Sequence to fold (144 residues):
Amino acid sequence: MQLKIFVDSLIPGDEALGAPKFSAVAWPLLQESRDLIAHVSVVIKEFRNSATGCVISESNESIESNEAMAKSFSSFFKEKHNVLYVEFREIVMGLYFSSPAVLVAMGEEEMPLFPRGQSLPTFNTDMLESVYSRGEIWRRVNGG
Fold:
């Protein structure tokens, strides 16, 4: 089981929508998370040494066997290392859905979502002056 095959099984992309697979847009960014990759690599080695991993890795290297292996690894990863799996999945999803190519495929602008890429227009606070000047607008309750 290779990590790249696994993340592409999580996010395979969609040619009809023009959405690329994970490795085409966010793989280099994931490589920067060295600690996370080191932990996931340990899980992959553990999977290979398990009975499930051995049986699947002996099959041929066709696309179908890669998909079966990724599905089996995903189940193993969730079951044995759920906290790490959730952390890994959240990072992978965040990297993918902040990619400009994916945002364009989803019909968004070519910039990351808040707070880094888009900002609100300046707000005219003068229009709130009458609200501030009228003072308190609530009724005090017993003893207050």
